[in-house]
C-alpha cells in the first residue's frame, strides 16, 4: 500500500492522465486492489477496479456454493451488501466530474447471474467502478487517498468482510426451494406456478417493488397444488398452470395483465420479500407482442401470413418496417426458432387482425382477399404439432373458449377456474366463423446469420455500446430492444452488446450454423467460462454484466437492420 500512497503523492496536481500510472495491482491488509482501466478524464467513464479477497480473509462456507443456484444467490447477496455499504457511507469526496463516485452493479428484484461478485475456489472477486478525484482536470491526490485508503476499506469492512452468515443461509435456502419447485414443475408438466399469498401488483409504472396493501393471490381450488419444499415444515400451495392453452379472462382493471406480467417475469427468480419470489414460469417462456416498425429478415411467417398483394414470399419474409400483424407473426416464429416452449401474449399489446377474425368479417372480406391466418386458428396446431403452450390474456373475444384447455377468470384480483362454464357457453353459442388454417406448422429450413450482419465499425474503430436497458449502438445503427419485454436490467443489455461484438471479433458467424446452434454455443460458453469470457480482456474487469437468456440474444440479432440471413 505504501507504493500506491507514494504514487498518489507523486502525481498530485499533475494533469489527469497521470492517473494512468495507477494501472496495476496493490496489496492491502487482507485483500488486493487491481486497477484494470484508469479513466483519462474526470468526466469520462469511471475507472475499473477489482478487489481480490482470498478465502483466508473472508470465509465462504462450502455449502454456499454447493449448487449453481446457491452460488448465484450468494454472489447476488454479497453484491447487494456492497451496494448498501456504499449507500451508507457519507464520506464527502471533493472534486469535479465523477470524483469520488463508487459503484457496483446493483441487482434489481431479480436474482440473475452477474460479474459484480464472483466466488472462485480460492478467492472472491468484487468488481467496482470508481471516479478518481480531480480539481478541474488535475489530479486531487489527497482526495484520492481518502477514497482509496478510507472509503473503499470502510465499504469492504461493512460488507464483504462482515457477511451475515444467517442471511446468506436463508438466501441459499430460497435457492433450494426454487430448485425444488422447478423440478416439480418439470415432473408435472406445469408451465407456471403462482404461490398463494403472492403479491403481484407493482408499486407504480416506474417501480418494480411490491404494491403495499395489495390483494394477496389465492389460487382457484381446481388449480391448487401443494409442494413439499426444503427448509419449511408446511408445503407451499399455489396455482399450477399445465402445458396447453390457458386463457386469462375478466373485466378491465381486474388483474388479468398483472397476473400475466408476474408470469412473464417468473422466468427469473426473485428476492425474498418481492412478493413474486414463488412465482415461477417455464424457463423457455417468451412474451410476444406486436412491434410496428421493426426490421424482419428472412423469417418464415407463412403459418400466419400468406398471399400478400405484391406476391411477396412469406416463407422468407423480410421488411424494414413491419406492420402490427407481420411483426407479431415474426415474433412468434422467431421465439419458436430460438427454442420457446411457452408463448405469453396479451390482447392489449397484440394486433387485433392477428388475433381474431369473426364470421361477419369473413363474410365481407373473403379468405382469398385476407392474407392473415389469425392466431386463434394456429394456437392449437402450435400445441399439437410443436408442443408449444400458450398463456393468453383475452377479455374481448369468447371465440377462444373453443380452443382453450383452461380458462382462468380474474374478478377483483381473485382468480377462478371457469373452464367448464366457458365450454358450456361455447357449446350453447357455437361460433359460425370458419377455421382458416392454410399452412400447417412443419420443419422449416434453419436460418444462418452471415458475418456481414454485425457491422460495428465506424471508420477504423469498432463501436458496440449499450445505452441503458433498451438500446445498443452498433456502428452507425441504434438497435432498439424497447419492446423485448423480458429484459429486466441494463447489465443484461451490456452483455448482449459484448456478445455481439465478440461474435464479430471472433468471426463466429463465418461458420455456417443455424441460429439455434449458435445460441447453444453461446450458452455453453457462458456456462463453462462465464460472461467475462466474451470481454476483449477476459482476465480484467469485464464491466457490469448480467446474464441474458438465449431469447433476448436472438431478439437482438433478429432486430439488426444490417442482418443478412441465408437458409441452410
From TrEMBL:
Domain ATPase of the ABC class N-terminal, chain residue ranges per copy: 1-161
InterPro entries (alphabetical): ABC_ATPase_C, ABC_ATPase_put, ABC_N, MRB1590-like_C, P-loop_NTPase
Top-rank taxon, per record: Bacteria
One Pfam family hit: ABC_N
Stretches assigned to the MRB1590-like C-terminal domain: 463-565
Domain (ATPase of the ABC class C-terminal): residue spans on this chain: 165-438
Protein name: ABC transporter ATPase
Originating organism: Pontibacillus litoralis JSM 072002
